[in-house]
Amino acid sequence: MSIRFDQEKFIIETKNTAYVFALYDHRFPVHLYYGSRQQEYSGEIPKHYRSFSPYYEKYGMVFSPDCALSECPFFGHGDFRTAAIKIRNQDGNSVTSFEYENYEIIKGRRTPNGLPFAEPDENTQTLIINMKDDLTGCKLSLFYTVFADADIITRSFTLQNQGTQTVKLEKAMSLTLDIEEGDFDYITLYGGHATERHYQREHVGFGMQSVCSRRGASSHQFNPFMAVCEHTADEDHGLVYGFNFVYSGSFLNEIEKDPNGRIRIQTGLGEENFGFLLAPSQTFDAPEAVMTCSQEGLNGMSVRFHRFIRQHILPKDPIIPRPVVLNTWEASYFDIDQEEMLRYAKAAADCGIDMLVMDDGWFGKRDDDTTSLGDWFVHKKKFPNGLAPLIRQIKETGLKFGIWIEPEMVNPHSELYQKHPEWCLQAPGRELLLSRHQLVLDFANPEVIDYLEDLFEQTLGDLDIDYIKWDMNRHMCSVASPALPAEQQDETSFRYMLGVYRLFRWFQNRFPQVMIENCSGGGGRYDLGMMKYSTQIWTSDMTGPKQRILIQHGSALAYPPCVMSCHVSDFDGLTSDPGKLDFAFRVATGGVLGYEMKLPDMPENVKETIAAQIQEYRRYESLIINGDFYRVHNPVDSPYYSYYFISPEKDELLAVCLKAEAGATEKLTMCFQVPEDARYIEEATGKEYTGRALKEGFSFETQPEANAYSLFHFTRIS
Ligand code: GLA
């Protein structure tokens, strides 16, 4: 049993962690502990009161909501720190208060309506804490879903209006973790288009620290992942809490350290760009937030997240092994047609590539990015015979076939917009702002989704496709829906995401054999919501290997390498330099390998190199897709990015050290987490090592030149 209720305390145990909270006077859930199962913790609710902190007369000056560690803090009723739930009631104020009513422990989980969620396994259990508010008649249920083997607990809530008056949910945070005290840092991933997910580590200071997206997408700018760790924690040591959000729209991550040193961490939808009206008998389901706790530093957190995402979030791989793709975008842009595609196919097949992906430019009158989004029918001039014969010919070369779509968008220059200008997000009386010449379709309007389902059925339904790249190339402003009444306009952003997930599910059900790769101008929606529906994500439009290192390092902190789609391109003409081409390949094999260059026009030696690269990648591929990933040297603080993949059985290990800049030779040491009594052989040198020696440190000399790498492949021999 991973959940029990024992002497007024709820105890949730995973393989390595314990999470404990208690009820104060059977009314208020108060947090006690989250950490290692081995560690002692006090089971007592601390008696806290400070001057200027409001208290209940009944308890006197020993308990104040402002001083307690809370499982779910409410707005405006005695806790001055940031709140999780804020509800505007029938009286017009938003003073919010719920009290504990009862609990349930269920096998499995409750499935949130229309939202992505972590798939349960046979051991999954959920603790439900039901709370009530007599004033509004609302019932709040807090969910703690436990994935014991993965050391993950997820949090979410539902709010049911069981009263007689309409209320409005104005702030919704799915997860709160209050920490009593400590010297902590927080880690977030920031960036922009082509610079996604750069690592940032800062000290948690007094006051509010937060990252968020107000863009209607989880965004390139700030990722929903966040970690809070002991100031002294490093890759392999120290206490680390990791958080994430199974959602792809705007979000808010908060850390507030009060002047007494207590830290409140929250993840959720936030309050900007959000509000939800609940009429009597209506229910709101909040998206799921995910947390883990590691005593083994940042690697411990990453490995837990990676395994959890592979086992409980990602769809089952429709194509095994994952295809090495050749994508047309970086080389041909909109300049594709029947003949060009066949040239690509021939060159790709000759090199041992598995799939050709026809990117943007195949539909409507799409000859550049000013037109045709929304017109999802074949570009007649480029493909006079339609796509079916083209796909047949591509398949004759032995390749699979993939296609690009961007269903959420519309260009004003399109047939769809001419017919349905009311189908895009827009605020009456406000000028429409364009981004990449496009507008956002109103996915809060179910009619729009119905229409797209029909249209994609007509265009793609009979085609023999294996892969879809689902793109999204602008962020939302004027977030208002012509389909919703005035009082529900704040729901637009959330309802939009429900519409997106509905269409994803339609594609998944309609094309179960098709692998979906998600993309948003590169990695602008690199989040757990998208990972529920996409096998992999296009990591970034930046394909320069040096720049990629920082992007891939940040991405792999929170997400497994098997989702990270990495293409070797002709960035800065690198294919004309064998050293650079080799380095680009080494960087790309930190994730799922692909290519994005004008392969038919490449010289023979480049084609031969690529064919050899693919063969080499095939040897390590299953380690990259299914293995555990550990960082050793961090490219933020050192000139090196070194890491290793290790198979779940610990019988194979691939260690890589990348160095983009030139610099003096150095002796580096990597320590591997392998069984001490095992023995390994390193492939290139044939040298044998004990597990113990590899654990204590494997040393090697780096090379002085730029774009250098070292690679060691160990196999267990006993
Ligand atoms: C985005 C993607 C690219 C490509 C273009 C097509 O920028 O990230 O890979 O698909 O759109 O317009």
Pick out its properties:
38 strands, alpha+beta, eight-stranded parallel barrel, 31% strand, binds alpha-D-galactopyranose, single chain, ten-stranded antiparallel sheet, 718 residues
Structural class: alpha+beta
Total helical elements: 12
- Which stretches are low in confidence, meaning pLDDT under 50 for 5 or more residues running? none
Span from first to last CA?
36 Å
The hetero molecules present are: alpha-D-galactopyranose
* Strands, count: 38
Q: Provide the gyration radius in Å.
A: 26 Å
Instruction: Name the beta content range.
Output: 25-35%
Largest sheet: 10 strands, antiparallel
The coarse overall form would be globular
Mean pLDDT, nearest integer?
Answer: 97
Kindly describe this structure.
The chain has 718 residues and is α+β, with helices and mostly antiparallel strands. Helix content is 20%, strand content 31%. The chain contains twelve helices and 38 strands. Strands 6, 7, 8, 9, 11, 12, 14, 15, 19 and 20 form a ten-stranded antiparallel beta sheet that branches. The chain has an eight-stranded parallel barrel with strand order 21-22-23-26-27-28-29-30, surrounded by five helices. Strands 5, 10, 13, 16, 17 and 18 form a six-stranded antiparallel beta sheet that branches. Helix 6 packs parallel to helix 7 and helix 9 (545-558) runs parallel beside helix 10. The longest helix is centred in the C-terminal third of the chain and has 23 residues, at 604-626. The model has no long low-confidence stretch (mean pLDDT 97). The protein binds alpha-D-galactopyranose. Residues 329, 359-360, 404, 471, 473, 519, 521-522, 538, 541 line the site of alpha-D-galactopyranose (GLA).
